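Quick one, probably user error.
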């Protein structure tokens, strides 16, 4: 029922505090190069997960250029963000990890090196 849906208390208010966020529904579409990069990243995450999750790695830690802090992403959140970017041009809104144990996460560079090491080992045998 429509009565049960909460109404925006700031509707039509010129001082709406959420106006600083901008219009979240008007995401810029990805360029072809950005989309290709996101697709490649998604494929990389799948490989990283398949090799690292059995070793106890829960996801990746990424340095955020905007806030200069590290952000911890589990595998599903990474996959979801990349899929959302590919489909809608922006990552999904999410809650950050709550007190993650940094020892359960690796950097993108570490994951890439690990995969390269596994491939090199396989090629030698």
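Nope, works fine. Designed sequence:
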């Amino acid at each position: 029922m429509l009565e049960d849906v909460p109404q925006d208390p700031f509707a039509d208010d010129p001082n709406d505090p959420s106006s600083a966020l901008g219009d979240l529904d008007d995401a810029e579409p990805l360029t072809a190069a950005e989309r290709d990069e996101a697709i490649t990243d998604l494929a990389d995450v799948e490989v990283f997960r398949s090799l690292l999750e059995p070793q106890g790695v829960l996801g990746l830690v990424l340095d955020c250029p905007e806030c200069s802090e590290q952000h911890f992403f589990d595998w599903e959140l990474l996959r979801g963000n990349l899929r959302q970017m590919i489909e809608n041009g922006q990552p999904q809104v999410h809650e950050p990890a709550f007190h993650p144990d940094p020892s359960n996460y690796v950097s993108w560079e570490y994951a890439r090196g690990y995969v390269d090491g596994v491939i090199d080992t396989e090629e030698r045998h």
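The two ends are 65 Å apart (CA to CA).
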